[in-house]
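Design job #97: recover the sequence.
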């Protein structure tokens, strides 16, 4: 970047820098850099247990692509991938919770999202009404 760049070009370059952040923990799991025990895998989705469970059963369903930061972007950009995530979540719930579960997508930092690679939390196991995770 030079000091002679127009302001709109500087702003564009800053957005490009923001978009080239380091890979998320989920991208690193997808690539195999961080090992995990996969509970389910399709061509486009993986699932594994959360390392800091907030319920008796707490699983994560993560698309292999890091293209979408949250469920709103995913729904707009690739609804079939969102449907596949829900299918994987339902299959896991049948296996781990008898088919009864909560499916949670945090969208935005103030809503509790800490990893900005869309992912679904599958929560189950004796959850009480009025609690988020049961912990």
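Job complete. Output follows.
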């Amino acid at each position: 970047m030079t000091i002679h760049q127009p302001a709109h070009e500087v702003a564009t370059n800053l957005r490009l820098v923001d978009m080239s952040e380091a890979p998320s923990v989920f991208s690193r799991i997808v690539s195999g850099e961080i090992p995990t025990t996969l509970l389910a895998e399709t061509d486009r989705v993986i699932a594994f247990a959360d390392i800091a469970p907030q319920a008796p059963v707490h699983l994560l369903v993560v698309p292999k692509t890091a293209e979408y930061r949250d469920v709103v972007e995913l729904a707009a950009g690739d609804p079939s991938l969102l449907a596949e995530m829900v299918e994987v979540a339902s299959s896991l719930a049948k296996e781990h919770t008898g088919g009864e579960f909560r499916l949670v997508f945090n969208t935005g930092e103030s809503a509790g999202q800490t990893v900005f690679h869309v992912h679904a939390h599958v929560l189950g196991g004796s959850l009480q009404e009025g609690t988020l995770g049961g912990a």
